[in-house]
Amino acid sequence: MRIVLVGPPGAGKGTQAAFLAKNLSIPHISTGDLFRANISQGTELGKQAKSYMDAGNLVPDEVTVGMAQDRMEQADAEHGFLLDGFPRNVAQAEALDAMLDREGMKLDAVLDLEVPEDEVVKRIAGRRICRNDSAHVFHVAYKQPKAEGVCDTCGGELYQREDDSEGTVRKRLEVYHTQTEPIIDYYKAQGLVATISALGQVDEVTERAMRALHGRGDQAA
């Protein structure tokens, strides 16, 4: 299957993408991984992206599209892929359609993870990270440490990242609503969108997603 995963920040896209890709035996292709790989490998696209990022500018769509195309042309993506973070706007969605059309391929489904805005703010603004190891993550509501402000694993100080403040989260949501959310209507016009609730336990959301995708796969067949 060829799938696009869409949802606001805090919807759990990365977590669900990893589970879904494993269950479907297709590669998980995330924008973050694409940028890191191209920059670390010093590819031409990576150099271009880095020059924009170092200057504090947004990376142009054509650079992001080029990275995605290179990745989708690799052997492990021959029979499908799950795109996470791409396309990020309608122009990128149109470029993806054109790219697939040239190869005689098409998307099978666009999975829209739906989360109420207040829940997104609660999820992200409640995160607390260990200063000693950013992999140690806690939450004021969902995963409280045994001692307030202290990492259970190493005893390090827990803090809230600036990017996780409520004001920053709401700005990120505004960007999502303005730039990315319109691709949902774009793909709805093609009959590709399956919207599921991203509330509940991780495995519950994965199960909903798999049911929705199997339904799309049956329609595609």
TrEMBL record:
Pathway assignment: Purine metabolism; AMP biosynthesis via salvage pathway; AMP from ADP: step 1/1
Keyword Transferase part of the UniProt annotation: yes
EC number(s) stated in the UniProt entry for this protein: 2.7.4.3
Gene Ontology molecular function, alphabetical: AMP kinase activity
Record's function text: Catalyzes the reversible transfer of the terminal phosphate group between ATP and AMP. Plays an important role in cellular energy homeostasis and in adenine nucleotide metabolism.
HAMAP family: Adenylate_kinase_Adk
UniProt note: domains: Consists of three domains, a large central CORE domain and two small peripheral domains, NMPbind and LID, which undergo movements during catalysis. The LID domain closes over the site of phosphoryl transfer upon ATP binding. Assembling and dissambling the active center during each catalytic cycle provides an effective means to prevent ATP hydrolysis.
Subunit structure: Monomer.
Protein name per UniProt: Adenylate kinase
Source species: Streptomyces lichenis
